Amino acid sequence: MESMCLLKLNVRDTIAYWHWAAPGSEHVLVLLHGLASNHTRWSEFLANTRLKERWNILRVDLRGHGASQPRGRIDTDGWCDDLRAILDREGYRRAVVAGHCLGANIAIHFAHRAPERTAGLILVEPMLPAALAGTLRRATRLEPLLRALILLIRAANALGLKRRRFPRLDLEQLDRETRAKIAASGSSEALLKRYAAPLHDLQIMPSASFFQALLEVKRELPPLEAITAPTLALLSAGTTFSDVPRTQELLRALPDHKTIILDAHHWIPMEQPDRLRAAIEEWCAARFG
Prior knowledge:
Radius of gyration: 18 Å
CATH class: Alpha Beta
Strand order of the largest sheet: 1-2-4-3-5-6-7-8
CATH superfamily: Alpha/Beta hydrolase fold, catalytic domain
């Protein structure tokens, strides 16, 4: 069974995560979502994967997303600290850390900061800063403007000017609806209207959190050759957010890695859920029995 858990950071703030417990198992899989997403990014995977028979699975709402809404500074260091605190609370010594998009970048940082806690990495469409392309690269070039905007928004928040509630985003339901629209129209227009829509993202999370998380996409990664954990990377062939050949070239620095290219635009969990699940299951079985 899966249960919702709250990790208390201070008197006001908590981090929410969902814990699937497989009694008697030492295997742990952590699932991290991407920018402007939440733990439901992995709901379909959890519902269908065979891993839950023998693996403990943690799905996290990253700080600033979903049900984890501390107001204030949001960055990769804090996300890594939160992940370590969750593992400590649950008594897990090591975990395979999987992440989609921004979540994949966080997984890399965590593996570098805490190699003794990282059994393996699964990087689904990692956003390697040196390989960013298209609108995402252009957006991160606005860093000085975005940092000024973040300071302005946080100042307004401190004065009490802030939204108190946000619509709940269920990505499992949204994915299914979008696949149906694509199948009916034969076009990816429905995909791009929703999944590449910053204005929609700003409606479902605090603006300061969104812009801080956006800037973390371009945060310099640790040296990949220093990552000792075995790594599985799943990349989209048709993405416009990053240069796929350049990403492959950079990933070759990982001492122990396997890369799979899938036919997708950028949202593999929505576009190729079955192939995503099969690739993760096969890799985990080969690596961890």
